[in-house]
Structure formats: C-alpha cells, structure tokens
Amino acid sequence: MTERALLLSSTESLVGVFTEAAETDATRPAFVFLNAGLLHRIGPNRLHVRLARELAGRGFASLRFDLSGLGDSGPRRDGLPLRAAAVADTREALDALAANGPSTFVLAGLCSGADLAFRAALDDERVVGLVLIDGLPYKTTRAVLIEQAKRAQRLIRHGDWHKLGHIHKLVGRPAAPAAMGNRDVPTRADAAIGLRRLTERGVQVLAIYTEGREYMYPRQFAHLFPSVRPDRVRVEFFKDADHIFTLRANQDRLARVVVEWSGGFR
Predict the structure, then answer these.
(1) Is the pLDDT of residue 206 over 50?
(2) What are the distances in angstroms from CA 253 to CA 34, 72, 134, 237?
(3) Is residue 14 a part of any domain in this protein?
(4) What is the pTM of this model?
(5) 181 within some domain
C-alpha cells in the first residue's frame, strides 16, 4: 500500500490523500471519502483513514479529500452557494482521479458527508456506489413512539414523573419530516425519488445507521423508502454505536461491513 498527497481541481486548491493498494485492480471503482461536517478529511476518530487502508488490502484505491475551505483546502473563488460548491468540489476531485486512473467511484460519507454523497451521485453517473452513514435522516411514526418510550423510561428511572404529561402530548404528533440542526438535507419525498433514480441506474447503496438520532429500529429505512429496490440497498443498524463510532468495537464492525460490501464490485 502507498499513500500520497494530491492537489486536485483545475486550481489545485483541493487537498487530498490518495491510497493505493500494492496491486490495485483498475476495473474496480475507487472510494472517495467526503468531509463529515467541518471535520478534517481523516474523518471522526480517523475512520476515513482506517477504511481507506482496509480497502487497500482488498485492492481498492481511495481518496480522502477536504472540500473547499475545510482542512487543508483553500476557499473557492467563484462565489458558488455552499451546496453547489460542495457538489462541484466532488466532481472536480473525481475528474482529477479519472484523468490518471479509475473511471468509476463509490462516494462515502457520514452525516452531512452522506447527504453530499447522495447529491453528488445524482449529478455524476460515474458514481456506482454509495456508503451513507447516518445519511438522509427522517423519522417514522414508529421511530417517534420508540424515542418517546425511551424518554419515558429515563424519566421514570430518575423519578421525574411530572414530565410524563409532556411526552403524552408529543406521541400524537406526526413524524418529523427531516433532521434537526443545520444539516442541508433534501425532503423525504425528494430523497425517495433520488434513491429510486440511483438504484434504477444500477448504483449499489450501503446505508449504515446508528441508534438514537432519527433512526430507531432496523426496518426503518424500508418503511421510509418502500419504493426503492431492496436488491440494490444493504441496510446495517448499529444499535449500540454512537454517531461518530467512538468505541473501537464499533469501528471494527464498521470496517468489516464496508469491506465485505465492497466485495460486490468485481
């Protein structure tokens, strides 16, 4: 395995690290890891580094790079809005790789990186696979009920009985349409349309979810997107993992799942 720094894009403002196996199979797609929020290209708890090196052991090349204005990459000078700039950065990174090697790609991201991977895949037909970790976060009614039941258990355990009435009022409300916070996510309807487009195009999807944010039970993805082809999507539910895979055991499981799934690209 070898690793080298690259300057990407026409202005060479994007900085990344390319990981290549000793015997990389050029017919396989290269994995491209996208920033999670404002974090550096190494990913939370160095997950991107770990995954890139594990994949190199299976003959896959990969790139982890910083979007404009993050990590070591300089800002864009063309005034593009944030969403369009991130998609443009991703396309420019793929162009740079394609000029010297791989012609197809798997985009991988966690949280906002997964949301970007989804949008960039819709924009670029060279993308043949997606690894979405806690991406496209939407609640179902069942997820809301599970969440409130867990909250009630915590209140009872701590003796805060007087707060249970508030939970009772929340149970009858419709499921939340999308994630909270500042994430720029598509609507659930747009996500369903996009996922159908991608899977019908032949894109393979690995959707990994951790418990306790919007995702609460193993079949939630199927309930959210019943019209998406199940033969093109693998869903993994990490019940005891936190959002950034702090525990080494969960990092190990994540690596095993991604590497095993990558075997489908022959």
Answers:
(1) yes
(2) 20, 30, 15, 11
(3) yes
(4) 0.89
(5) no
